[in-house]
Write a structure and sequence with these properties.
heterotrimer, A alpha+beta, B mainly alpha, C mainly alpha, A: alpha+beta, Rossmann fold, OB fold (Dihydrolipoamide Acetyltransferase, E2P), 5-stranded antiparallel beta sheet, 9 helices, disordered N terminus, C: mainly alpha, two-stranded antiparallel ribbon, 12 helices, 2 strands, globular
Chain lengths: 364, 273, 282
Amino acid sequence: MTTIDIAAAPLTAIAGAPTLLSIRNVAKTFGRNVVLRDVSLNIAEGEFLTILGESGSGKTTLLRIIAGFETPTSGEVWMGGERLDNQPPYRRRVNTVFQSYALFPHFTVEQNVAYGLRVAKRPEAEITQRVAEALDKVKMSAHAKSKPSKISGGQQQRVALARALVNRPKLLLLDEPLSALDANLRRQMQVELKSLQREVGIAFVFVTHDQEEATVMSDRIALLRSGELEQVTTPREIYSRPATAYVAQFIGHTNLLRGEARDGLVKCGALSWGAKLPDGPVLFSLRPEQIRIASGTQSTGAVRIEGSVVHQAFHGATELMRVECTGELVLTVRTSVMSPIGSRVTLEFFATDAVPVQESPERR
Amino acid sequence: MELLVSGASASLPRSRWLSLHAAAVFAFLYLPILVLIVYSFNGEGVGGFPPRHLTLDWYRVLFADSAIWDSVLKSLQVAFAAMAISLALGIPAALALDRAQFPGKALFRRLVLLPLILPGIITGLSLLMLFNVSGTKLGLMTIVLGHGTALISVATTEVFAGLQKLDRRQEEASLDLGANYWQTFWRITIPNLKLSIIGAALLIFTLSMDEIAVSFFLIGRDNTLPLEIWGRLRRGITPEINAVSTIIFGFSLLTIVLWYRLRARADSGLEGE
Amino acid sequence: MFSRTYRLVVTVPPLLWISMFLLLPYLLMFCYSFWSVSAAQTIVHVWNLDNYKELALKTVYWQTLLRSMWIAARVMLFSLLLGYPLAYFLSFYAGKRKDLLYQLVIIPLWVSYLVRAYAWKTILGSDGVLNTLLQYAHLTKHPLDFLLYSPFAVVLTLTHIYTPFTILPIYAALEHIPRNLVEASHDLGATPAQTFWKVIFPLSIPGVFAGATFAFVLSLGDFLAPLLLGGPSGIMISNIVVSLFGAAYNWPLGAAISLCTLVLVVSLLFFSERLEKKWSFS
């Protein structure tokens, strides 16, 4: 599958929403370092899209290209029927919330938020009103006259948000804005950001390396790996039908089963089940919660295997167990039943839950 | 994360006026020196345009001039002695500023740094009065004391900057492993400061070789190089002075390139072997 | 972490030296300024205010001081005008050549003051390079007099010498500005010019104060350039002091003037520091 195929898949989750931003075959090289290779992506109006990836995947570079701080080595970016990538940042109707907030230290919160409007020479009355509105939306009205150095990180982040949104951009870019916050504050902000986006109705492009964050907040996730898009789809799709082994492993836990298909039968080590797949090597992704401890008779379409528990990890409501099974297969199982280490268990899963995925070869 | 790739693109798009201005200022800074160098080869001496009759005569005269070489020797002696004093006092001062709290610390800091920004005449004159009152005869010794005192600030600033980059935990580890403060100082602190100290030494040496404002008042019978040149300037200009100036420029250039290399190594975290 | 002995060993020697060779001399200067010189050219240790009365009443001292301050002010102004755009260029536009160009700024600082002042003397003289060049190019018929032995020459030379001093703190302040602030400003719609005046310049002001102070203070107390290039119309306050310690032999009066200069300089430094702090936002 090429990148275009991946991107052409369910284009928008917001049914019928038109395309706002179109990234066409963008590549970016720094010196001899290839950071982005042939990335194509369409962003719909009003959607919350997350660009997800590890460090070095190129996600920040992609964001900066949209914002205008980098120009693509090849490829184009279009917005609203006009070419965007040849415009300087100050002419784009795109605003950014920076990772370190980048608040102006010599201006108060109010003056920071008003900056874009002042530069655009809007009338004073309008500026005052819009700034007050923006601060109210992010609940920072009480700190309007404070300087950035005097407010907390979480508060700075809200100001950065207000400063960007007050300009009513067509698109808002957020570069890992929550990475500096502690876990609880982070969760709270995730919810607030999502509802804020719904409220203002502007498309958000959110960059993060945290897959849980992406799953919780996004309408769609674009998973980037070594400068190429692995999969672009809704969180639900990306979880239940990962396209490649990399995607399956990046989002949540999974078991990768390697085997061979022949004449409608699949053999993975000691396991075997019927599946309509072309002959050849196959790879399956099986989520831990889809494996359970067998009881009673084997249902149709279910596959069973025996093993002994070698490791347990307590995860609150459930446990993650590692089971060494026959044929040197180690499976990770999510279960609410505690089985002591060393005990023999019989595991069961439905053959249809094993999703075939593409191999993910090592990339430079 | 965002700063990772911003290196090259931190520059804004070209601005013609700014580049022109920059070039003009560099020209302003360097042309006089270039003129000096060119005219040191000019047969007809200083002044007159265009330069004709290129020759090495003035350099020949220079090399035969024993008074100049005497003063160079004296300058070297002073520079090395001043270097010793400035470092011996500047390093502890930097350590004190970095690690100790004591009443009057702010005043101490200002006093140490004052000679850097004060016109040399005030430093020179005040020391002159000291030597007068104490009956000390003026000579190379007094110049050494003057330079040494004035240049402590240079040593302190350089070493202090180096201390900021020093990982405190190395010293803690050393103490933890049983070394006492003195051992830690020599085995850990000083080696880590090596580059700062050498850089400071180079700078102090160069500044001392060139120093004239303070030396002016503390001079006895012996001349340092700048004072020797000064004396001749009062009497009239000869292109020989161009020649010696050119050589001084050459040495300064060498020294600063050396200093810069050292600085770059220090900044990149490579501690010299 | 550092024991008491360590801290004593590290603090006491420099403290002692500074007291003896920095504080004590200033104190002595203070004392001298209240003494006088006898007809026999010896110092009379009688405490009086004669020197200060002389300074306050005789106009020549005020005139010279004002002239010195005017020269210093011009040097400061020109150094800033020349230096700031260069520092800005270096910090934001120089890209890969930044390091090299920075070295080029520093090199003149390491070249002897005397060498540079002398260079100007040879250039500006009536037989000098500039005059002969102008005549050679038929731009002038006679040598221009005002070029040398005038306040103009002093201002020109001192600007040449102190511009690098001014560039360094401004450059340091500019380098200190996080680049993401510039990006944020562009992101919010400000052009590079608007970004400069609204964001970059305000944040660089402490550096500007530091650079301006350097240029002003060092020029004010300079005596070498006026001696070499100033002529009778370019005499500065330090030249008077030099002669009082030389041929005009009146140490107490010289000390009084020096002390006043010291007080003036220290006050300027104090105010400059206050202003720097006020305008510092990090």
